[in-house]
Design goal:
Length: 345
Amino acid sequence: MIICSESVTLSLDQFIAEHHPDKVFLLCDSHTYKHCLPAIHLSSPFVPIVIPAGEQHKNLLQCNFIWQTLANSGASRKSLLICLGGGSVSDIGGFVASTYQRGIDCIYIPTTLLAMVDAAIGGKTGINLDGLKNYIGTFQLPKAIFINPQFLQTLSPSEFRNGLAEIIKHGFLADGELFNYCRQPFPDSTDTNFWTSCIQANANFKQAIISTDFTENNIRAQLNFGHTAAHALESLYLVNNEILPHGRAVAAGMWIESYAGAQMGKVSQSMLGLLKTAIQHEFEKVTYSDTDIEVLNQFAGKDKKSSLGKITCSLVEEPGKPLTLVEIPDDTFTLAWKAYIHEVI
């Protein structure tokens, strides 16, 4: 159940009244605790759990803290965990909920554009392992997702832009209405009517794919477009104790993978040009050096979509024509890494 509304508290109260959890816990990070929690006025008492903000804290150490807090506060299999935050909060919160006493109910309230259109939707949970992005996780759907577009106004400009990459990705995968969103300047976060419509359309698109292939055996893999390269870039940054915003990584990843695909005759040159135009408008270039490329290929070969160290990507031949699980040789991917830093933007 996905509800896009400005009445999140009312929807939450109705859900709790209908499901009768014995205890309610609300997980947030230090940012959403300050900027978003004050807007949630639940009728039911709840126990807040606050973790540090940031992708670097999506790890087993924080999982242990949340598990211990649940256990020490008497959480049972009839308890409810509400996750208030961006993709990192829903990723770790969903993972904790799916594993605590073999699974308790959870709800997501995404507060970033990235989470509203992508990260909170689809039932993938995950934490990082030694710099490897989302390497530990489960498939577990939340009981509900409540989206309030007004939370977009709490975001910094850079965090707001972070979510545009997934909208662009969906647009190229789907064509039609979703592709039209990518072909015009995006309004700012105060245009609630536009963002309610855009978020709902993107959520519906992803949900339709998830419903036919929940555990990613075939068609769902198309949603990984750009993510093999993106996760490699994020992993490179993580091992250097830096954070690369996911949306910026995905924007770069879509072009890098498409360039490699074009070298193999799998992606049209017009697609490559359209994608370059779309990402140039919104994203700063990701920086790395030629000497990082061997490590980037190693990370790409370890991605969850890959097998036996082979780099595997989901590509888009042209808008509306996705290709799933295309194996790309290391030397072709090397050319793409080099092309991005020396040719694009």
